[in-house]
Prior knowledge:
- The structure holds four protein chains of four kinds.
- Chain A is of the alpha/beta class.
- Among the domains of chain A are: about 5-125, Rossmann fold (3-Layer(aba) Sandwich); about 335-495, FAD/NAD(P)-binding domain (3-Layer(bba) Sandwich), CATH 3.50.50; about 575-640, Alpha-Beta Plaits (2-Layer Sandwich), CATH 3.30.70.
- Chain A is built from 18 helices and 34 strands.
- In chain A, a hairpin with a 4-residue loop joins β25 (about 470-475) and β26.
- By secondary structure, chain B is of the alpha/beta class.
- Chain B has two domains: about 1-130, no CATH class; about 145-270, no CATH class.
- In chain B, β3, α2 and β4 form a beta-alpha-beta unit.
- By secondary structure, chain C is an all-alpha fold.
- The model of chain C has no long low-confidence stretch (mean pLDDT about 85).
- The radius of gyration of chain C is 19 Å and the shape is globular.
- In chain C, α1 (about 10-20) crosses α7, α8 (about 110-125) runs antiparallel to α9 and α8 packs across α11 (about 170-185).
Amino acid sequence: MARIGVFVCHCGTNISATVDVKKVAEIAKGFPGVKFATDYRYMCSEPGQDLIQKMVKEHNLTRIVVAACSPSLHEKTFRTCTQNAGLNPYFFEMANIREQCSWVHDDREEATLKAIDIVKLATAKVGKNNPLQTTFIPVEKKVLIIGGGISGIQAAIDVAFNGFKAVIVEREPSIGGRMAMFDKTFPTLDCAACILTPKMVEVNQSDLIKLYTYSEVEEVSGYVGNFKVKIRRKARLVDENKCNGCGTCWQRCPVRLPSEFDMNLGKRKAIYVPFPQAVPNVPVIDQKHCLYINKKKCGICKKVCPFEAIDYEQEDEVIEEQFGAIIVATGFTMFDHSIYGEYGYGKYKNVTTGLHFERMLNSSGPTGGKIVRPSDGKEAKKVVFIQCVGSRDEARGMPYCSRLCCMYTAKQALLLKEHNPEAEAYVFYIDIRAAGKNYEEFVERVQDEYGATYLRGRVSKIFQRNGRLMVRGCDTLSGTQIEIDADLVVLATALIARPDAIKLAQMLHIPYDQNRLFTEAHPKLAPVETVTTGVFLTGACQSPKDIPDTVATASAASVKACGLLSHEKLPIDPQIARVDVEICSGCLACKEVCPFGAIEKEEIVDRVTQQKRWVAKVAPSLCNGCGACNTACRPGAIDLDGFTEEQIFGQIESLTADKGNER
Amino acid sequence: MLEQLRKKAKELLKNKEVEVIIGYQKSNNNSFTTPCFIESEDGVDRLTWDEHCVYNLSLYLKEVKGKVGIVAKGCDVKSIVALMQENQIDRDRIKIIALECQAQVDQEGQILEKCRTCQVHIPGMYDELVRSKTSPSKIESKESDKEYSVLEELEAKSTPERWQFWQRQFEKCIRCYACRQVCPLCYCSECISEKTAPQWILPSPSLKGNTTWNIVRAFHLAGRCIDCGECERVCPVNIPLRRLNKKMEKEIQTMFNYVPGLDSKKKPPLVDFRVDDPQEFIR
Amino acid sequence: MKCSIASDKFRRKFAEQIEEICGERISLCYQCGKCSAGCPVAYAMDYLPSQITRFAQLGLIDKVMKSSTIWICASCQTCSVRCPRGIDLAKVMDALRILAKRKGIVPKEQIAPLFDGIFLGSIEKYGRLNELSLITKLNMASGRPFKDVSLLPIMLKKGKIKLKPQKSNPGKEVRYLMRKVEKLESK
Amino acid sequence: MKRLLKKEELNRLLLGLMKEYDVIAPIDEEGLILFRPVTKVEQVLWDYPNSLKPVKEFFLPPREVLFQFKRGKVQPANLSLKKRVIWGVRPCDARSLLLLDKVFLDSTQDVYYREKRKSTLLVGLSCNHPEKSCFCTSFASGPHHKEGMDLLIADLEEGIFLLESNSPEGEQLLKGRGKEVNKIDEKIRTKIKEKTERKIERKLKPSQFLERLTNGFDSSYWEKASRQCISCGICRYLCPTCHCFDIADEEGERVRFWDGCSFRNFTKMTSGENPRFGKRERFKQWYYHKFGYFKENHGVFLCVGCGRCLRNCPVKIDFSEVLQQLPAQAQTPAREG
């Protein structure tokens, strides 16, 4: 029979102001198995913990109940305390009489009665607790980084700096991501390529970093320390080992196509590298448009290649590798603003987006750094920027603020003026959100020094009058409706999750929110972790982030990943699901409902019939102890250690036993 | 049809495609049938087929090892599909000799309730199909539209009335577990009703225990029951169990547009999660 | 209310004019509204001081010039002291008044411009202010001849008002200064 | 004592009993023929095939509270029972009680059973229309046997009933009722009895059972015989002689309730060991208990031939045939069963 000690905390006056803690302790003395009960001002304090340990010795206690705050705050504290008292740490239960009682009630008498019931439940449970042991799993010392933008690049560099191996899987033919498309970066106006390419080169040259470009993650199984990942290496039709990027092939390729990298403002060939600084500097053949692949004509690239690197027969290859941790750095995509018919996108060539404008600003871009009207290629002098296109719009767009549009619009307005001091910049905004180091100053400079006209209000309509774009908006500060005839309109479209984000989330067993953005384990205290141990988030796949924030989360995620990898073995929480194979009928409903992919099929030999049969098996390192399998199991073959059916039944019985026999 | 059936069964045994065939044979007093297990070609003549072949033989699939042939009606094939979905049988070791079935009758010769709204007179999955030459239709096809008409009377009752109705039914239950034992989908090696630590369901035939048992069983079959109606047929105290399962089937069809036993590739909705699942019930 | 904002060039010119007169840059204003919030005479204005600044930023000269605000402003400098962007708004108001006057946009119903004229006339004539003539002229011109008559005996008795104008010796110098300003202005 | 009663007189006898006793009689309850407490003569069925459930449920109830407990305090069950009459018991069921007596009263007496037995009078009704599944004549019983009853009513048809007492209590009931029985009446009765017995076509030869069982314990015959069985409890629960039970604590009550050897957990032990895990062993056990062990221990077969097991089997297993087909010799069994 367990000898239970109950310790009721005042939490200063947090609890004691509403709950009669002395009475709770007094009544707890009468609960079955309780040998000692007392109250104390701060149980979590050192004297409080000493008291517990002293009483364990004095009264020979074998189980501890602390009635205090939420277990999410101090369960760990008291488990350790229990362990230090010489008991199994899982011989401890916490009764939450603060968050679930004193803080939410004001009737002292009723609250005290409720607190008594909460303590009663905890004592009933702790009496049936089993001693649980922490187990350990080995760690594969390699990190998978999904996405090769600035986020993935920085993460890889940091992982490598810590002496661990990293693998970047990038979907596009080159790493670099969105940042490679930018001209300059705010607020310092550094050239984006100048600060990005050294990092790209570093990644390429590092012995510890492996690049899989033009590749995609296809399947993820396993668990922290031991992820098994299948990666599809799409056929480039160019042998990476032979090609030295001389460029003969793409110079001679006869097929001209709109360049995705240049936002279709420029052209590329059917065999191409997306941009001059691409890493690796190896072209890919666009199989959809290649004349040889489609019509068996041409074949020029193969003929002219001095290194015989062209291989039309190359096929997709699926490789499998093992990783200890995964960093998700898949970034974002742009909101499709064609839903705003009033902005005339698609109808008017001169209505573009920030990314188009960015390419135009770039001196190595399709216009050679000239700001032109896509309609006729003439210089654009009057440019209207519209912010919050798809952001902060619950009706048709995303409810959130995309966070960087204010800044890049200011930057673009500034650069417009630098390119052509005669040009005029008008910015329609709702609020200016320039919360960053030197950001506010930057926006002020743009207005004050560069004379960009900021108009507070949304644009209602863009239409054409006498061959010019008319932008009709409102300046709410002056209370006037405003019409501006513009050469060019630049929409600051919202940053949104990639369309296949959910697929990846399900593959990795990480949650995502209603906007398909990946959810961190805790918004404040675990901002780069996910609920799946060993999977970390960085960059805009989690929420819109600018470059400094992205780089910061990349470093944070890599530190977390390296932290895991620095252990030879990882401890796992023993409060997880357990399958009783004697009862399991192998229907694997549990496997279907497990959000963490922690259940797999296992073949066993039945003890009684001596025949082989399938049963469910829990991977301890993946299980989070959520209990979904528990409820899906019809015969009740799955139990959750720390929350066993016996414990829960014990709790229910403790509450119903004395409440009269209503049968 | 019988000739065809025996011929196909013989071939399967002869070619060693199966080791045993589960089928129907005449029972001792000849007016009914009983399940039989045939292991040799000369036993094939015992096979029979008429309107008394009510049994859902897929029940035996799990316990018969090795390569097995099974004589199955449309409704029985649905349970084979469900068993495949739930990892219980390996399709590769099973040969389905499917029979076109117009309707089955009860001991009094009345057409069974489930057959009146049957939608699978010709089974949806098979290796061999035995069809009748004439295809005489005993059933007005229109009736299949009224699949849930059996529920109308109950659904018209108020909640307390319905509760009273079921309490009266469950009171009769003697806990012989024939419903469970005859159900092809009640395959758990240990039933939740047998669990003693803790005890979820009171084991004795008290009203409380009976109610829990019958309702828990209905919940465990929700989204899985293929409506073979065997539980109701075998119940010695005539509890209308099919209505319970049918109601679950209807709710799930309305909510998830899913009918069990039709597609072995589909996931049953209660072990599947999708973002667009209806969630009104937790609001 | 619908109007197109003035062209970029025009706005820039207007802002430059203001800066030239008073040295303040209205483009600095970010419309926090602290000036309007603290203005003791805001209740009497048709537009708030911050609105005037915004109109000025957008080059809506008509609105600025025709507003009562610039004339009601008492130059108490509360706004100037409090502006987080360091704009001396009282100076801007001065500048706007000057510009208005130059353009001849002086609303008849406003007393302030009248006062200014009579005040300056008195200085020019006497080298310093003659209170009695100022009050008489102002009240006559604004159509309220008997406005302060009841105060006259008390003020006379206390020596606050003298019947005879007091002349300042360096009246010549004052006149010289005023000519010079006029010369500069007309440039 | 034998008396001849007309229907009305019989009804009057029943009505009289209702005043003094709790009367339990067969009624039609929503299509099920069941023995239930009755208060009106009209409710009682006269011409019915045997009831769905045997009368054992009134002596060994499906659920019986042995005692109650709460926080260490034990409250024994109330054993005192009002005097009751079970009316219309068929001879097979009456005989089953004699067999149960051997279990519950012979050596250690089961007080719960004993008290119920003591306070119950059995008024039987002989059987004129046996069912196809009946085989009572094969097991020392018959449609007109009075064994185990206090009083047996024989339906001589045309509204005349011959009542025969079989105990002092039964005699007491008959006193002063109807008229004397003469030889012609006796003759009519014998004729009806013989006619009924002839109707029972199912004839078994139990004399060989014991030997066959001894030889056939390991026979693979059982594998095949049990194949169709779905291991439900219908045959066990509806059998008038099956008497296995389980005991459990349910919410402050210790209860005894029916259990059957067809269930897999019947012999499961705490350790997880289960000597009769397989279907074949469980199926076989029933026969060994009824026709082997019981015969060895008590000299009689534990079967009265009521045919309920046959009638109610969900898969139409012919239980009466299973032992007939058990090979006499221990060697290879018939090819297919």
